[in-house]
Amino acid sequence: MNENTPSASLPGGTWTLGDLTVTRFGYGAMQLAGPGVMGPPADRDGALAVLREAAGLGITHIDTASAYGPRVTNQLIRETLHPYSESLHIVTKVGAVRDQQELAELDKIGL
User: Fold this and answer.
1) Cystine design at 41: which of 22, 47, 87, 103 (Cβ 3.0–4.6 Å)?
2) Which residues are tagged catalytic?
């Protein structure tokens, strides 16, 4: 497969918005971080392997946020996939902030 061409063989094919075409099937990186989406992953090598596999399957967008870890998933993505192919798009949410206090409060209410 050409690394710069989205894979049409993934579920849902591709989706185009303006001049941007991505696979409908993306990868959500939230679970790459540790328990409660805080800290490093329990299996760092496994997390890196998952990212390599996603890119190898032709997935052209990865969803992340600096709040995951915090910043852990972004660091793992950069370490594993940089330099990025022209077809790979890293999409992120901005403005979210998480810390241990917030995690403790979410645990109290069962979230």
Assistant:
1) 47
2) 68
Please report, in tens digits, the pLDDT of each residue of the chain (111 residues total). 434 455 557 788 888 989 888 998 999 999 999 988 889 999 999 999 999 999 999 999 999 998 898 889 999 999 999 999 999 999 988 776 666 776 666 566 554
> What's the pTM value of the predicted model, to 2 decimals?
0.77
Cα separation of 67 and 100, whole Å? Answer: 12
- Long-range CB contacts (within 8 A, 24+) of 45-53: 47/76, 48/76, 48/79, 48/80, 51/27, 51/76, 51/77, 51/80, 51/81, 52/80, 52/81
- State the angle between helix axes of 44-56 and 72-81 in degrees (0 to 180), rounded to the nearest 10: 60
The span from the first CA to the last CA of the chain, in angstroms, equals: 41
